[in-house]
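Subgroup meeting minutes
Present: P.N., E.W., G.H.
Scribe: E.W.

1. P.N. recapped why we're keeping a running log of single-chain structure predictions: easier to compare across weeks, and new members can see raw inputs and outputs side by side.
2. G.H. added today's entry (90 aa).
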Amino acid sequence: MKTLLANKSRDVGMSGLVNVLYQSRLTYVGGELNGSTVTIWLTGQFMLGGVCDIPRAKAQLEYTAMTAAGATTARVLINGRPIDEVLSQK
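Output recorded in log:
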């Protein structure tokens, strides 16, 4: 997670992939694996390119956490709030 959040480059090498989190100011605080669910705590704020980046940012964080922890589900909290609530446009 720290490596992902520290990457301030939009492009991921020459892969054609894009890091939608590159402008965000997020810090990894910690994580916990409970069964098959990983929970990660982040602080800071998102700086996204538009509404289309919302599902990309969520997926990038969740899938990175699941892959790193060997989990099948992820729970991401930003400043103590669920990611869906933080990224909600309501």
